[in-house]
Each structure stands twice: as structure tokens, then as C-alpha cells.
Amino acid sequence: SISIDFLDEGEEKGNRGECLSTFSRELLPYEFGRPFSRIMTLSVQVSVAFSCKKSSGIQEEEMPVIFPIYISSVPTVTTLNITTRSCAALIRNGDAAIDEKYPRARVTPFKHTPIKLQEIRFLRCTDMETEDLKRIVRYMKKDGYWETLDRVAIKDCKLLKYDDARQALGEKELLFSQTM
Questions:
Q1: Which helix (H) or strand (E) holds 175?
Q2: CA–CA gap between residue 139 and residue 49 (Å, rounded)
Q3: Which of 4, 23, 85, 154 has CB 3.0 to 4.6 Å from 47, enough for a Cys bridge?
């Protein structure tokens, strides 16, 4: 189980994403899941708090805060629990993400890392919207992990509606609940 609280002190937008990506790679290094890992369930709780105030009258372009989870680093995990506040999670293959950012850096093509992920549970993701869910689905398909996934559970993610989640997930089994 991993619980992280970030304090964003007005970091440059481009640097913010780079810092979170680097931190995620350090938190779950490639060797973490090798060779005899017994980790079956991984729980990630990420919260971002902003300490800087926007100047009045100036509208800054909103850029979502995205915390990547490189699931290829923990291939034995079958259940991934995610709780986020003021940010969105993105589930990726770490090698694919690097290849996209630095396409000419790799001499040989990256090898697809098989994983055992069967279920993702989004629990109390207070700011998760339909577009965030669609982004996760898009990248999991792109990285070749969508087909191995059996079900997605969404509980108390207040901004998500059942119909929108159902449409974003397609044929995947959906367990959906909202506490009133």
C-alpha cells in the first residue's frame, strides 16, 4: 500500500508532470516486481494540494495533474486499488511511456511486459471525470494491457456517472456504486 500527499508549490506545468513521472518510476522501480515478487494487490492513494494562489484576473490554462502508475514494474499484481484527490491516475507500461517521450533513444524496440492485472478499483477518486477514465482505457489498450483486465470497480467517485463509465469501459465488467 502506498499513500502519497504532494504539495504543489507552483511548479512549472511541464516540470510538474516530469517530477511526478520520475517519482513514480523511483517509487516502483522495474526491479520491485522481480524475480520472486508475491505482491498480489497494490493500493495507491495520491493526493495533491496546491499552495500557490492564482493572480486575480489572470486565467491560467488548466493542465490536469496526472500521476502515472507503471504497472509493468509490478507484473504479479492482480488487483490495483486507486484513490486520488486533485489529480488523475494513468496506468501505463513504463517502457512504452519512455519510448513515446524519447522515440529515438532506444536502439532496440521495447519488449512487452506481460502482467497479471485482472481488476482495477477506483475508490473515492473525488476529481475523476469521464475523460480521465477514457484516458486510462486508451493507454491500457495502446500498451496491450486492456484485454487481460476482467473488471473495473468504481466506488464513490462523485463526478462519474454510471452511463458515462459504462460507455468508456465498453464490454468490461463494471461494478459501480455511489454512497449518498
A1: strand 173-177
A2: 26
A3: 85
